[in-house]
Amino acid sequence: MENNDKYNAFSLLKFIWDRKKWFLAVCIATFVVSAACSLLVRPRFRSTAVIYAPRTSSVAKILLNEQNYNERLDMRALATVDETEQMMAYLNSVTLKDSLIAKYKLAEYYDIDMSNKGAQTKLYKTLDNNIVIKRTDLGSISVTIADWDAQKAYDMTVDAVRWLDTIKNAIDRERLEAAYRDLQRQLDSINKAIAINSDSICELMKHGVFNVERQSERYTQQYAAAVAQGNTAAMNRLRSEMDTLAKYGSKLTALLENEFNFSQYQALTKQKMLDAQLDLNTTVPVKFVIDKPFKADKKFYPKRSIIVVVSVLCAFLLTLVVLLIADKIDEKTSESSTESEKR
After folding, report:
1. CA-CA distance, 306 to 243, in Å (whole number)?
2. Cα torsion at 55, 59, 63, 66 (round to 10°)?
3. What is the pTM for the complete model shown?
4. Among 140, 157, 200, 273, who pairs with 145 as Cys (CB 3.0-4.6 Å)?
5. pLDDT tens-digit readout, 23-53
6. Closest CA to 133 of 46, 44, 43
7. Cβ-count burial of 187 within 10 angstroms (0-12 exposed, 13-18 middle, 19+ buried)?
8. Tell me: the pLDDT tens digits for 258-274?
């Protein structure tokens, strides 16, 4: 078996050597054609930026919680997987793509007629083919943009990373403004409730009810003294005041408790409004830039040497297969002719 393998390998080499002119001619022709074709392929350049997402971008949470340390509220804390995925969603958003399309006039640049059916889809697909956004093994996000123009690839990468702040802050601002309006409505409702509650307290105080616990204690002491002295008039007066206190005291207690609860809720709402206002009036970067993009000084596509080598190799193998088949056909034809002559 081993001898057969050596013999077959030797026969194949001899077969190639005997027809070396064919192989040489095909390989040279393929080399020339593939080299020429590779020169016609438009070179492409790419720029890459690497960023990390933070755990939070809320200024209020970062600045107003320094005494009670929380890793999530640390300005230097890096995002979790879920938060990184959210950041990637912003980078892949249509809003960002539309910004690039508008600034660089990519429909015209990619020679896409927007009046044609499906032109918008084609434009987005072309842009998607030039943008690669992925999460690295270390948890960061790489933003790579490729183009025929090295400067344009660099500029688009810089803008994509820069506009990430604008897009996320705009989305957050929209939500914060809505939350602020809701808080304002809640505060207005609380203020109205406090005003009504205060009016009710004032009405009860007109009946001489101010502090149920202290008044009750004082009336009890005075009534005991009046009984001891046998002062009927004082006893009747105190009994009347105690009846008034009993009638309105529970209502006053409930209203005072409501006042306390309302004031607590009012303070909490005002604090949330201040937090929202601080976030509205202050913006911080929503990402950490680890590697800034740079203008590529070397194309990444096409790899002309690879194109030429693969083309020549494929041409060589195809020629070998064709010649083997042709040789086999000639052999069969010769055998058939010999058998016919013998007959």
Report:
1. 104
2. -20
3. 0.59
4. 157
5. 888 888 888 887 777 666 678 898 999 988 8
6. 46
7. middle
8. 888 988 988 888 888 88
